[in-house]
Amino acid sequence: MRTPAAPDRGRFGVLVVEDDDTIGRHLETGLRSNGYAPTWSRTGAGALTEASQASYDVLLLDLGLPDMDGLDVARTLRAHFPDLLIIILTARTDDIDVIAGLDAGADDYLVKAFSLTVLLARLRAHLRRHTVAASAREPVRLGDLVVDVMARRCELKGAEVPLRAKEFDLIAVLAERAGEVVSRETLMAEVWDENWFGPTKTLDVTMAGLRRSLTEAAQAGGGPVRLPQITTLRGHGYRLERQPDPAD
Ligand code: CA
């Protein structure tokens, strides 16, 4: 489904199907300013026409549309485009609607009102899984630390650092954006695939485990090790530093 001349996230085509003007405009603006290429349709019929005329990577689909049931839009597009990532946007919170949506071929759903941050995080997580084989991403090297997402290996000075699954996912997301602050909300959404509604200990516990594993690996190696720090920015999130502290 990817546009051939568009290797980066910046060009993922997103078809937004939403009849609410405020939400539709918010999504269109937010997606565009974050590097996606959105097309906004207010009706189900309009979305089906759009999808038949251009290639899309992602469908963001409101279920309550003026002209047809969103579930029928999902079913139709799923039948034609098996690789399309379909995320349902719903105000309906009943489990039965969520199950119906997933049965209709959706990959994921977000209950309104979701935050743009959460939507963007979920998109990144899905698209990473979708495109991981195609993009063959290079390992990230920071000092003596190497994070190889393709091989799911974390190495320090050539020795594998034993990490639990979520600890690896955490360092992978931080390494992918080394030098940038990654918010707690983003980490929760990308690593745990969950909406984040408040303080949670899961992230703190996993972060503590990750730091402990890295420190132990650095000490076990013997000799100087250039290990980049994970800086905590209270109230904001975490940042994996690009420049490791000088070896000591
Ligand atoms: Ca609606």
Instruction: Count the beta strands.
Output: 12
Q: Class by helix and strand content?
A: alpha/beta
Q: Please state the second-level CATH architecture of the largest domain.
A: 3-Layer(aba) Sandwich
- Summed over residues and divided by their number, the pLDDT gives a mean of 85
Spatial order of strands in the largest sheet: 2-1-3-4-5
What share of residues is helical? Answer: 40-55%
Secondary-structure element pattern, one letter each: EHEHEHEHEHEEEEHEHHEE
Number of domains: 2
State the shape: elongated
Number of helices: 8
- As for the CATH topology of the largest domain, it is Rossmann fold
Poorly predicted segments? 1-10
- Please identify which CATH superfamily of the largest domain we are dealing with: Response regulator
CATH first level of the largest domain: which class?
Answer: Alpha Beta
| Gap between N and C termini | 49 Å
- Main sheet makeup: 5 strands, parallel
Strand content: 15-25%
Task: Output the radius of gyration.
Answer: 20 Å
Task: Spell out which ligands are present.
Answer: calcium ion
